[in-house]
Amino acid sequence: MDELLDADGGLGPIVTKLEAWTEGLIRLTPNLISALLLLLVLYVVARAFSYSVSRTLRYRGRPALANVGSALVRWSIMILALLLAATIVLPSLRPGDLLSGLGIGSVAIGFAFKDILQNLLSGILILLRQPFRVGDQIVVNGFEGTVEDIETRATYIKTYDGRRVVIPNSQIYTGTFTVNTAFDFRRSEYDVGIGASDDWDKAMQLMVEAAASTKGVLADPSPEAFPVGIDAYQNTIRLHWWTKPDRASVIHTQGRVILAAFKALNGAGIDMPYPTQVHLWHDQTEDTDGDRKRQREGWPAGRGDVPRSRFDAAKEASRENQSSRSD
């Protein structure tokens, strides 16, 4: 503070400083006006280019890329405008010095905001390459739903139960995901079991006819059925059919196909078995245990005198008791 006062304690040095600053500002006034005019002109140019990019991309059916592309063009032009304005206001400031400073600063910014920049770049690449679009139904990281929006940082998905999932773009771009609506058709399948003695060909024909007559099933490609296994309690037939790829069409059509196939097989008298278990209980402390000639349940007794089951023995004993009472 003392250096701003003279020996007598006056304000002469302060006044001198203010006059110097005022003269410097007056000398810089033309540069400031030129810089402001340049910023204004480039702002108008940035808006015009941004609008042109947005309109072109929207016309080509890419609204998500239109939002991001127009913003990138606008901000790029404005950053260039600020750099040019700085060199006009401060003639001693060279563009090379600015660029070198930005280069050093960008390294530090890159380390500090690595995840943000990674998501930004991934979002731009997703919008450019377009592996999926807004409205597509995708499965990513265990989440399945409809794409609501694709931004530079994240992709928004609305699940089928009405929830919103926000997934960073870097996880999508570097990971694996499934686009259920990428093509016009989607195939569904269902396994149906028939009895071991039922006619394979008749059952497959009935299932194909039932699927072909179901609402929502496409005629081309046509439904098909083929054997896939002779299992423990059934012969298994796999039914294929094609529908529109959206979730609602797939689920609703599958329900109608299953119902139609069941009615067709049941109406034709074809058995659709279910797993059956038989539990045999016996006393392992009996001396007959393990002797197939003497045991009463559990294994085939073979030839010769076959021991009666406990049920038959109990019935006979009951009849004998009733007979003895009547006598």
Automatic annotation (TrEMBL):
Protein origin, superkingdom: Bacteria
Membrane topology, as annotated: Multi-pass membrane protein
Principal subcellular localization: membrane
Membrane-spanning ranges: 32-50, 71-90
Keywords: Cell inner membrane, Cell membrane, Ion channel, Ion transport, Membrane, Transmembrane, Transmembrane helix, Transport
Region described as Disordered: 282-327
Keyword Transport tagged: yes
One Pfam short name: MS_channel_2nd
Compartment list: Cell inner membrane; Cell membrane
InterPro entries, per the entry: LSM_dom_sf, MscS_archaea/bacteria_type, MscS_beta-dom_sf, MscS_channel_2nd, MscS_channel_C_sf, MscS_channel_TM-2
GO molecular function: mechanosensitive monoatomic ion channel activity
Keyword Cell inner membrane: yes
All copies of domain Mechanosensitive ion channel MscS, residue ranges: 115-177
Record field: compositional bias (Basic and acidic residues): 282-297, 305-319
GO cellular component terms given for this protein: plasma membrane
Role: Mechanosensitive channel that participates in the regulation of osmotic pressure changes within the cell, opening in response to stretch forces in the membrane lipid bilayer, without the need for other proteins. Contributes to normal resistance to hypoosmotic shock. Forms an ion channel of 1.0 nanosiemens conductance with a slight preference for anions.
Subunit structure: Homoheptamer.
Family the entry assigns: Belongs to the MscS (TC 1.A.23) family.
Cross-referenced PANTHER family: SMALL-CONDUCTANCE MECHANOSENSITIVE CHANNEL
Name of the molecule in the record: Small-conductance mechanosensitive channel
